[in-house]
Amino acid sequence: xxxxxxxxxxGAGPGGYVAAIKAAKLGLKTAVVEDRRVGGTCLNRGxxxxxxxxxxxxxxxxxxxxxxxxxxxxDIRFDYEKILTYKxxxxxxxxxxxxQLLEGNGVTLLKGKGTLLADKSVRVVSEEEETxxxxxxxxxxxxxxxxxxxxxxxxxxxxxxxxELFRLREMPKSLIVIGGGVIxxxxxxxxxxxxxxxxxxxxxxxxxxxxxxxISQNLKMILKKRGIDIHVSAAVQGVEAxxxxxxxxxxxxxxxxxxxxxxxxxxxxxxxxxxxLFAEGAAPAMERGRVVVDENFATSKDGxxxxxxxxxxxxxxxxxxxxxxxxxxxxxxxxxxxDLSVVPGCVYTDPEIASVxxxxxxxxxxxxxxKVGKFIMxxxxxxxxxxxxxxxxxxxxxxxxxxxxxAQMMCARATDMIGEFTTAVANQLTVSxxxxxxxxxxxxxxxxxxxxxELGGGAIHVVPKKKR
Length: 468
Known about the structure:
Elements: E1 4-10, H1 16-25, E2 30-34, H2 40-45, H3 47-64, H4 80-104, E3 108-111, E4 113-116, E5 122-125, E6 130-140, E7 144-146, E8 159-160, H5 162-167, E9 174-178, H6 182-193, E10 197-201, H7 213-225, E11 229-231, E12 234-242, E13 245-252, E14 255-261, E15 263-266, E16 270-272, E17 286-287, E18 290-291, E19 304-306, H8 317-332, E20 345-347, E21 353-357, H9 360-365, E22 370-376, H10 381-385, E23 392-398, E24 404-410, H11 414-426, H12 431-435, H13 446-455
Parallel strand pairs: 1-2, 1-6, 2-3, 6-19, 8-15, 9-10, 9-15, 10-11
Antiparallel strand pairs: 4-5, 5-6, 7-16, 12-13, 13-14, 17-18, 20-21, 21-24, 22-23, 23-24
């Protein structure tokens, strides 16, 4: 096997494997190092398995509610083991696909633990051997791991991270979720739909605090309606054994409270996975556990780059992939193809949530005069057909030019439709330019046109307010 490459990438997650394939396509002799299955957290322990479980649990809930559509079914039940098998089969197919893509594009897959050495070479340790490889450039793409709160009781056997929750072979009867962000509300959606008693404890004043305030408010109402107990501004003090269950102590409105469940999930975010990544003297400049990079993702070590969850910024698979593409293009001397400043965010609850660019509040904080077009999806034909719960599409544009600054959606297929606005923000398109495209009927996407029409003088399917 060759021991010298143009580029070595440590980590074959969505940042690393995409960077490797792009670099190989651009003519660079490339290797990628991975000590687990390719695909990283996203394919194996995050995005894909979580969305598979969301799909299965949503289907179960829809079947239970079929009477709304005149459909009656008896003996509706689920087999948790088969749900897990379906999840794992989905992951396996995608992992095999990534392996085939790497091989098909001539990327060398080095199996083992990759460590950056002081001279910019990379040591790979597998069960069979230890080998040192050299490259002109190295990309660090080792990803992240679940963050565990530094509070008493987090080492108890019933306190789980998302990785450990995926490994459970039994359906939890009750679950406390510490954290109210994206990971938290997605898991809460899954297990509540399957009949688990779920409690969310969020330290901030609202769920998904980084998203539009109206999204947070609507989501809280919907989750409560589905039987999820939600506590916001709840500071967890510790976890302790409570018979066969585990109790969380938390402070809410200056009162100490306590809630118990079979399991406790710590879902407060993720931190960079730098375990064993650097040999002595090889670590680049770091800040709060993250690798410091410049605007080109270069570290303080010459020829070494870092992307994805290792660096400051959005911890999202598609952001890591885009960064990997950008570095590969840069190293190959190719023109950049992706605007890395425009990153869509998605939450796969029901209804789905998606956003990109600025919210109205963020624009106001920056002193930007804006117009907001909003369409309530209860007036959308497709939403009425599928009996969707409360939802909306909101578009933010500059008041003087009509340039789209951002969009926030909470409705069916929001995660698919946000792409239109990501393209609009990245290319500084205007409301009138987006309105030129005809939208098919009946579709959820018609709601996008209605929100844009509201900005341009009034949505077609909204009854105007009477003038006094």
